[in-house]
Design a protein that fits this description.
The structure is a homodimer of 365-residue chains. Chain A has a domain of 235 residues: 3-Layer(aba) Sandwich (Rossmann fold), CATH 3.40.50. Chain A contains twelve helices and 14 strands. In chain A, helix 6 links the parallel strand 5 and strand 6. With 365 residues, chain A is an alpha/beta fold. An eight-stranded mixed β-sheet of chain A has the order 11-6-5-4-1-2-3-14, with helices on both faces.
Amino acid sequence: MTAVRPRRQAAEPSLHSAFAGRKVIITGGLGFIGSTLAHRLVGLGATVLVVDSLIPEYGGNLFNLRGIESRVTVNIADVRDVYSLRHLVRGQDYLFNLAGQTSHLDSMSDPYTDLEINCRAQLSILETCRKHNARVKIVYASTRQVYGVPDYLPVDERHLVRPVDVNGINKAAGEWYHIVYNNVYGIRACALRLTNTYGPRMRVRDARQTFLGWWIRQLIEGQPIQVYGDGAQRRDFAYVGDVVEACLIAATHEACNGRIFNVGGDSPVSLKDLARLLVDIYGRGSYRVVPFPPDRKAIDIGDYYADDRLFRTHFPWRHTTSLRQGLTKTLAYYEAYGPAYYWNGEEGSAGPRPHARRRLAASSR
Amino acid sequence: MTAVRPRRQAAEPSLHSAFAGRKVIITGGLGFIGSTLAHRLVGLGATVLVVDSLIPEYGGNLFNLRGIESRVTVNIADVRDVYSLRHLVRGQDYLFNLAGQTSHLDSMSDPYTDLEINCRAQLSILETCRKHNARVKIVYASTRQVYGVPDYLPVDERHLVRPVDVNGINKAAGEWYHIVYNNVYGIRACALRLTNTYGPRMRVRDARQTFLGWWIRQLIEGQPIQVYGDGAQRRDFAYVGDVVEACLIAATHEACNGRIFNVGGDSPVSLKDLARLLVDIYGRGSYRVVPFPPDRKAIDIGDYYADDRLFRTHFPWRHTTSLRQGLTKTLAYYEAYGPAYYWNGEEGSAGPRPHARRRLAASSR
């Protein structure tokens, strides 16, 4: 990602003035969305501190910072680590709070870890801000998973929150902590309920977080894509560049404070059509429709797509990358870097973990 | 409370056959609603195990079991104590899950304890049931606090959950854990969102849990009742006997499984009218309207009253005790027992805590 893209020109001056020279901390900053945000913020002239636990399987990957290694500070720490966070949060102007346990299946097999990361650590981040940096502005990344099985489509923010797994419950609690701390203590915060986000730097190692990443890997490795169910489920997909812009706009607009917004994809597509589109773009490969594994079936939500008009109407944000454009970029990225940096070798491995903040050397992996 | 009350005759035979000889565990069973439930279940012939932590300020009080001391088993344990709970839950037919941190103010000053009790312990109770007693039926006591400031009145179950304090957030998570474990693992569970419950055995020591208890104490002690705000806030109040019947009906109807129901009061009343009614029933005393203390104002929700037609329509439950009747009973109870057992002396004190299940001797306090 570069600092200025022509199609963003309208919002660009204000974003540049909002972030140039400002201090920004990104939790989960070695992950998919966090690292993409780091690239963008570096381009806008911000002083970026990336915090990530590099817990295996969670999506953090040092390679995600390729190209900006010398322009960001990386601190390896877990958001459950109260004392580290206390130090790191001080003096920051913006906090993009993206660290989380994101696997629905893991949240059922180990609900306590999900609770510690998605609830307790969120509380402790907010308590830390309240005590040590009450003027920070926070954007919290929530998920459409909080809605569960939709009563109607597309799902807007008036839809009941009715999660179908422990992860959805804890993410809902996490977003409300932010809203309560905004309303009660004036720690400016808002939450974005993200839909299926995709793009370069997403986790593609397996289907733990998103099936689309796994599909991309299957396609590039010459395996048939496995579509669960009947393939008729409709979903919306948001390109990570668009999601990152939504985060920046939420951060810089005071009218977002204390509010929760959907950030969805451009338009819904059936999973079968998505598989077909991927194969078409890639120019080879195949897909097949297979029954749901039982553990996934139990927490599947069927059709889902978001109504994000509330955010689009009130703030200068829109989808700018079509599904075809986004998938094309994504496939090209993983063709180039996937085998070496995303599905082989130990994820996120970069030698021993440092004890203190440090510059990430370009040679570190 | 006696076993058979004429006004319950229609539901009585089925409740008796449902509970006679059955094993029932009540967490928070020395508290207000839990102990009232224990009295009722003893009357129905159930084998009752009361579990309570007797944490000072939480409302557990051994005196609440006066009259049934020899007919229930009391086990002092904290729901955060995983191993104790594992032992206690085994073999139970019903679990009334009433243990909780209920203070909104405490949840803001110490959000972690609220999280441990209202989230983590709930998860561990459910995990314990899943592994050691998957056939138990659970009724979880939630709260109207999950709704926050109402968009419309009366508030039905279609209203968005939008808590205004950490307690409301964690209670919402707690109820959803129950629903998810019902839906995913088949651990039969439902949740009742209780409104302001009042009656004999409620905590009246201070205004930590409910202002009504505090008012009753003020009245009996000859102090003017302090009504916060302008006194025009309207609320509904549910008599504990009616709430207990709702719990029993929820426990015995399979159609409740996986569902969340409001259980409200008979009809709303303004706080000023409530104070006036109390003074009228008591025959002496006074009230005065005073400004909100700032910590309470920040989490006050204004007018609130529940629409509980969903539960009333589908199940054989209705309000049977008017506000005047209920307040009359409550005042009589605290005139008799308040000074000795509810506002003087160390709350819940009964000497050293036992390490194992034991019969509570009538002489224990």
